[in-house]
Amino acid sequence: MGVAITLRGVSRAHGSTKALDEVSLEFAAGGATALMGHSGAGKSTLLQVIGGMDLPDSGEIRIDGHALPRRGLDAHRRRVGFVFQRFHLLPALSALDNVLAPLLPYRVGFDRKARARELLKAVGLAERERALPSELSGGQQQRVAIARALIGRPPLLLADEPTGNLDSATGQEIVDLLLGLREQYGMTMLIATHNPELAATCDRLVRLADGRVTGDDLVSPAPDVLDRIGRLG
Ligand SMILES: Nc1ncnc2c1ncn2[C@@H]1O[C@H](COP(=O)(O)OP(=O)(O)OP(=O)(O)O)[C@@H](O)[C@H]1O
Ligand SMILES: [Mg+2]
């Protein structure tokens, strides 16, 4: 299951720049939210403070009701999967080994290769587990990066412009894949994107400008509603 996230008055400044300025937001467990806003609006900063990779200067972040501590965030980070614009695959490792890489420092109580293969299958790359990143297209490399982000079964997936390096058709495939994986695994998803079409396929759209929330809307109707609309039409 996904986690619920609450931010109350979260601020983060870099010098005189307010990257986040008193941001208060709630994200329901299992929801998929798109974050939009101009370059410098604070999208990446928001993902980083929620993911425990950066600390807010003030305000509070709660995950399932528990305030994130200011120290000892490792346990939190282990429950977060990250997907980036640049896929950041390790070039000398096969697709399978890239998916396994996050588990290297840990003892785990499950069959790690079986899980990595299950995830490569879920992202449509079952046949390419031995391929090196250089032998894969951009969209395929991002699929490997998504499988890698999910290897620890994170209840929270943060994606920072996951389609930024892809053409629009491939980008839409990646977002559809993410939404399908959310159905399957139930994690809460936050996706920073500049693409309004991709954002419209999430179930909520939050807009940021200059570190502040300027819009917050539910977007596409649920699939069952679409079904009904289709039947009526
Ligand atoms: N490490 C840093 N040092 C100084 N300023 C920073 C740092 N990180 C972010 N900023 C500033 O904070 C503001 C918010 O940056 P952020 O990266 O969150 O924006 P963004 O919405 O992700 O933009 P983009 O769409 O370009 O990725 C910007 O003005 C940026 O220059
Ligand atoms: Mg950014």
Automatic annotation (TrEMBL):
Keyword annotations of the record: ATP-binding, Nucleotide-binding, Transport
Domain of life, per lineage: Bacteria
Statement: the UniProt record of this protein carries the keyword ATP-binding: yes
GO terms for MF: ATP binding
PROSITE patterns: ABC_TRANSPORTER_1 (PS00211), ABC_TRANSPORTER_2 (PS50893)
Keyword Nucleotide-binding among record annotations: yes
PANTHER family: IMPORT ATP-BINDING PROTEIN
Name by which UniProt lists this protein: ABC transporter ATP-binding protein
Organism listed in the record: Nonomuraea purpurea
Lineage, broadest ranks: Bacteria, Bacillati, Actinomycetota, Actinomycetes, Streptosporangiales
